[in-house]
Amino acid sequence: MRKTHTGVAYEKIMEELMKAYVGSEIIEQVLNIEDLEKDSLPMRYRLIALGFLKQDTLEDLNDNLINNGCQPLYARSSFETTLIYAFANRLSFPEWKKIAKVCEEAKNNWEKSSDKQMFFRGKYITLRDLEEYVLSYSEKNDKDLVTKQITRVLDEEIRALGDDYSRFFHFYISNLQEFSDVREKTRYYFCKYLYYYILSKIDRYKKCVGNQIPNQEQLLELLPLKVESKLRRRKTDPEQLMDILRECAISPAAIFEEFNYYFFGYVSIDWVDLMLENISDVNELKDSQVEMIANYLRNSASKSELTQINEFRDKELVQNRIELLQKDEENGVTNRKGENAIRKYLRGDLDIDRTTLICFLLFWGSEETNRNEINISEERMNDILDECGFSMLRKKEPFDEFVINYIKSSDPVSYLMAEMDRYQERGESFFVYEVYSRSGSNAKEIRKSMSL
């Protein structure tokens, strides 16, 4: 498969406007202008403002949001739960504004006096961290994990409170731990399918290696976990393997590189860095590996870097790269945007938009990451999208049409390549390129705009 479209900017489809979490400042701005169709304002908040003006019911507003490609109000957002209460009780904009201000003050006081971070607290995210997060929001059903309905329960409770403000404030304060700066259901599915993905790789490793000493190729099966140094040149009882792996850090860089390889079939310079992160000295590598890595480093260098790089012999060049990576890891530095995005998705620092979620579900939901066997059905994809508050797949939307055809194709790889060629011929960017590039979570902007 051909290389490198990674530098092409990925253009989000229009409905991704809905992921821009602004807040009451935008709503108030819309309410104070005559033209509610002003294009500079996010569609989602224009519709919420219009809902206040029309005195919409909560059902009317959510239907209007969904019909315009936007997410309905989300009960686990500390900001939007006040909107749900306001529209459920047909409150005016000034009435909602007073409630929102009191709630924001309560939230700020709570955050100052408590540790709101329940998961992924350490410097590194381990497999145990991921497992604890997924299991905490899941219920076991046979062999599968079924998501708990926290968002739905909160939504139903808000609707049942009535117009007694004191009951709402008690509800709000009692559930502060459940609120999230990102859409938690989307984060949950991202983490759940990553967890399944890692477990499937562990199962294949155990079947292949047993209690023998693994070779380098077998260890690559576990690349999403930083485990090589613990398993290399040693026998491990398969029964004890999970105990070892649970304490290993997850590698967001390796996950993103495997995502790239799944869709595009190429090895990038980031993949080379991943190989070197587990090496402390160039002499641990074979001569053929040194030559290959040195060639990658030279081929990926800019013109300004190439003159200096060519002064080094292969071993010197690779050793310099190893030392640079070690220094960056000690300082917590990385320039890999995809790696950073995945880390922030896991920690709940970035929202996961609809396009990104779908692309990663296709990757993790494949049959043993074989691009010729897509194991996640259109029905299952729609169930997840609906649970996350996203619109389900629509054949009239170009991206959705691609997803549906990709899932159903008897030869997904050929279909993918043909679609990429078609977009390139038209001079357009393909959907999957840099899906993470515009991820954002504007929690700070919410808090700022709600300081009324």
Elements, N to C (H/E) = HHHHHHEEHHHHHHHHHHHHHEEHHHH
Strand count, sense and barrel status of the largest sheet are: 2 strands, antiparallel
Regions with pLDDT < 50 over 5+ consecutive residues? 1-22, 441-452
Radius of gyration: 24 Å
Report the sheet-strand fraction: under 5%
Strand order in the largest sheet: 1-2
Q: Report helical residue fraction.
A: 55-70%
Shape: globular
The termini sit apart by 54 Å
What is the residue-mean pLDDT, rounded to a whole number?
77
Q: Give the tally of β-strands.
A: 4
Structural class: mainly alpha
| Count, helices | 23
Structural account:
A hairpin with a 2-residue loop joins strand 3 and strand 4. 57% of the residues lie in helices and 3% in strands. With 452 residues, it is mostly helical.
How is this fold's topology laid out?
Blueprint: H1 24-31, H2 43-54, H3 58-67, H4 80-88, H5 93-113, H6 127-136, E1 138-141, E2 144-147, H7 150-159, H8 165-174, H9 184-209, H10 216-219, H11 228-231, H12 238-246, H13 252-264, H14 269-277, H15 287-300, H16 303-309, H17 314-330, H18 337-347, H19 354-364, E3 366-367, E4 370-374, H20 378-387, H21 398-408, H22 412-425, H23 443-449
Antiparallel strand pairs: 1-2, 3-4
Helix pairs in contact: 1-2, 2-3, 4-5, 5-8, 6-9, 9-19, 13-18, 15-17, 21-22
